[in-house]
Write a structure and sequence with these properties.
heterodimer; A: alpha/beta; seven-stranded mixed beta sheet; 15 helices; about 15% strand; B: mainly alpha; 10 helices; about 90% helix
Chain lengths: ~375, ~400
Amino acid sequence: MAGPVTAPAGAAWSRRTFLVAVGAAGVSAACGLDPNAGSAQEYDLGGTTQLTILNWPSYIDPDGDAGPGTISRAQTDLGLQITYLDEYTDNYDGYDLVVANALNQPVPAYDIVMPTNWLAAQMIAASDVEPLPLELIPNHVNLDPQYMTNTWDRGSRFQMPWQAGITGLAYNPALTERPITSFDDLFDPALAGRVGIIGEMREAVGLAMLANGDDPSRPTEAAADAALQRVMDGVASGQIAAITFEDFAEKLETGELAAAMAWSGDAFSLLRRRPDIEFVIPDHGAIRWFDTMVIPRNSANVAAAGAFMNYVYEPANGARITASGNYISPVIGVQDELRATGFSELADDPVLFPDASTRNRLFTWGGLDLDFETTLDDRFNSML
Amino acid sequence: MITVTLAGLAAFAAVATLSGWLARQGAGRIETSVAPSLVSVQQLSASIAEANAGATAAFLSQTAGEEDRSSRLLYLEALERASAQTETLAGLAGTDEASHDDLQALSVALGEYRGDVEAARTANALGATTPDARLRDALGRSEGEMAESVAAVAAQNQQRFDDNEQAGLLWGIVAVIGGIALTAFLLNLHASVARRSRRRLNLGLTGAVVLMILTTATLGLALAARTVNLSNAESGGYDAIVETAAFQTDLYTVQTQNGLDLLQGTQEASTTTSDLQRLGEQADLIAASADSNREQAVAQQLEARRQRYGDALLEVSANAEAGLTGGAIAAYRDDGLQAFNGLNTTLETVVAENREQFIDGVDAAAAVTRWLPLLNIVLPLAAALSAAVGLQARLREYS
């Protein structure tokens, strides 16, 4: 495990990658975001000043030419000693190898971890997380209500979303020679062997369910099973050539794939480099997911974790994170902040800030019986 | 004298044990069935009202062109919660036939309600001339027979709470008075024995006195602690739950009525203003009863969310009064629904905080009575044994 660090440096390709060409600091400067944004408001930390955060790689604005990143500023503004680790590479390894181990210690190794919504739901159900210290998070009021209605955490008492994204479709029109507007289109024989799907079961199965006319936000075992079988048949027949993660972008760019399931943040970056490639939210709808901030059970630094969550829910700080990662911010006021600081291009982007009509076509995985879902995971992962 | 003393101690043990047993049973029933029922029935009332709000919003958005999926989900999930809460209440009602009858009636009404909403949705999709007629039937049903059933179940559970809160109290008072009298008797007996004995201290009788003081004090303090804990749970937790549930129901009624007014074109800014003022007063009550930093933080969040909801509703009514029906519906469907969801789920957080406080208080009340029946047998018997030993020693000395 790495020792204390001040802030993540540089950006690397990852699921949550952005800004290879521009660089996060450059964007921050370009959009006029004040590198010292975020108030130096004093928080009652209850005597704890240590904080260890485990996040996905390249998922926060790093230190750069334009000034210190969010972690460095939080250390200064909040008086915290933050150990920031970007070693959470996927939800399975993240939970099995890192989080579960931490939870088995008397005091967990991490004070904030960032599981995706479905895993956060399972952790909350298993009492693996602490309730949020709401008295230290007045900016909880800035949480977008669309993330507060989940049946597994109504009101968001145990987790706060970090960033959200859309899993839709990306394609190269020159290669597909037709628009791709549905998951069904990936099964066009003309595209055989040139199609990719995302290697996250709930997103691949969810999108297939939507194409089948089923609702992944209220999944049934039969519908999920049928959708998974369809995906597996596609892989077995060779129609689907690749199961990708963030590398879908590279495969589309090189022409290895003509069409693929795509994450909105990485697609956003890809489209900047290759404006000829299209990212679409299918007619039947797309999958919306979000990564959460949770405090593992028995954390010794709950108050510091609450202070940090409050900090990143200040719109000025949330705007910097969004500008860096290009995923959807769950913080009310970020869009206005981006617009006010002169970066309307981001503020007006329909993928970053979906309008009501688009939101109506976004579905978040609703969850199934845990044993059944584990079986689905095992079957899906056998293809990886 | 031995016989009288032992008989007195046995009678005391019987009354104290009965009191402790009744108190424990009462607290146990509150902990395992009455308190969860009270919480569930309040949530049931809120769930039905929330289903109304979701159904109306979904219907309105469908009329405007595209059904809002989040409103539809709100309706479906609220209805599922209402069904689950009805089942939970039935499971907790035990042998209470009146509650079972009311819950069965409610269950049937919920099915009919769902049928009305689905019929309205289909009629709306097919472009029927009066598609909202069945929706109004559903809303009428929820405000009529369903509300009556819920109110009846709530009243039955409140009565069960009151009955169980008092359980063992009267016998406990009798036992405590008897315990004091018996202690005084034993002290007097000890003094009498000591006067006629070579020894100033009769260890057996002294032990009996100490044990009686211990028993009486334990019983009295436990019953007092149980009463205080239950009273605190009721005033600090349950009353706040009722208050919050009333706010929730009122909020959903406002939301539903706004939707219906938009359907009929009868939106008025003055109605909206008075609705918002009423909601503000209810939010103030919740804030005033917040008794921890955490609850105060949630109350502050509630106020901020309420103001956002108010702003959204005022925009809806301003558009409606200006004749901009499309703008009004868009404002209701977009910002209005988001603000409603924010306020609604924050209210859930308030309820959750109060529920924990209520359940904690009830648990504490049950915990202090858990060992009472055993202690009330063992300690008086030990006192009797000790007194017998003391008096036997005096008899041996005399002979």
